[in-house]
Amino acid sequence: MATREGNLEAPTRHPLDWKNPEFYDEDNLFQELERVFDHCHGCRRCVSLCNSFPTLFDLVDESPTFEVDGVEKQDYWQVVDHCYLCDLCFMTKCPYTPPHEWNLDFPHLMLRAKAARFKNSGVSARDKILTSTDAVGSIAGIPVVSGVVNRVNKMKPTRKILQGVLGVHADARLPEYHSKTLHARLSDRKGLEATGEAAGPTSGKVVLFTTCYGNRNEPIIGEDLVAVFEHNQIPVTIMQQEQCCGMPKMELGDLESVEKAKQANIPALAALVDAGWDIVAPIPSCALMFKQELPLLFPDDSEVKKVSAAIYDPFEYLLLRHRAEKLNTDFKVPLGKVAYHAACHQRVQNIGPKTREVLELIPDTTIESIERCSGHDGTYAVKKEFHEISMKIVKPVVTRVKKSQPDHYGSDCPMAGHHIEHGMSDGSETKHPMSLLRMAYGI
User: Using alpha carbons only, what angle is made at residue 346 by residues 345 and 352, rounded to the nearest 5 degrees?
Assistant: First the structure.
């Protein structure tokens, strides 16, 4: 019987059996890598995505057999290293995802490989530091220290030293640190008691999961979100304490640290959901972590499922309110032309282009959507060995922005936005869509 060519059904995801010792068995892992790589080699549809696929196809084309069986097994790690779990291959390109009988889930196979390497061989000190966002932020965010860190990060001589010592590329843009965190700026909203007006599936009151990046690196995004939501009579509270969602550690393969973050965040969030609050997270990767990845890592945890069902992308939330005629559409300032980069981790949430749809409500505003990966990934673009490749990946996005000649440009992922800004190299500045929305309201 012939194998059916391609999938005619929506892709489905299987839970990750990461507690099973076989998950980390390298012989078993390499068998599965060879099987999946062989299918990818025969298809090659994903060649225009991340650098994992060109790396794989080059290895095959340069092998003695011109097939996957001619590639040295240790060279498989080159493919793994270039995957930053954007998920676009699974969600938008691959025709052989489950329920197809070939059962390909390339990103989660790469995650398994990263987890096996982390458990069996360990990773570099640099990678552990770059993914310890809470620890690094708490030190770099100390008053005086934050100013020193920000200045040093912009000095070429010290950046050359940092490249040699830590492996952080001297030309990569590094995020700034703020001594006054978003949590400090919104401290009066901790433990807030409020009543919201329900509309559609929304309760009308939200918990802002500030995220480690939003808390210490770009708190203005959270402040703009609060201003926009309160302008729409949506009360906003924050958690008493929160930790990183766990996405950086997951991308490293450190699943035990992901579990620790889950144990810190989920009970507190679930309690707020029980009290009638919805949840929003302004960084797409963090929303995706709670919506998709944690339920697949902990499929039997009822509180994880509860939080997953209650968390929203901010623009998804606002558009749901609009459909129930509860969104304030009295905009004061037109935005003109906006070049909008749709972040990968927002696209794979399968919620549709909600940011674009909300911004299109603003009069005299046109949105040009750019649906292509920026190649940043939080840590990939700053690493010495990957920065130049990340700049190649972002180049088509930069070209689209320049060709558009917009009044504003930006991305739901602020790190992607700054990576585009870095590629523009013309002095222009990215603006987060939530900041643009606040601008349009004139608040």
Answer: 140
Q: In this model, does residue 1 exceed pLDDT 50?
A: no
**Cβ atoms 354, 321 nearer than 8 A:** no
Question: In whole angstroms, how far apart are CA 414 and each of 115, 219, 283?
Answer: 27, 11, 8
Do the beta carbons of residue 249 and residue 257 sit within 8 Å?
yes
| Structural domains for the chain | 21-120 (no CATH), 125-166 (no CATH), 182-319 (no CATH), 329-441 (3.40.50)
Local structure of residue 16 (DSSP, 8 states): P
**Whether the predicted pLDDT of 131 surpasses 70:** yes
> Token digits for 206?
């939200």
For residue 207, is it left (φ>0), alpha (ψ between -120 and 50) or beta? beta
Kindly state the tokens that stand for 198. Answer: 């329900």
CA 400/CA 326 separation, integer angstroms: 34
Only one residue has tokens 């590329």, namely 169
List all residues 6 or more positions away from 61 whose beta carbon is below 8 Å from its beta carbon: none
pTM above 0.85, yes or no: yes
Tokens encoding 406 = 């917009």
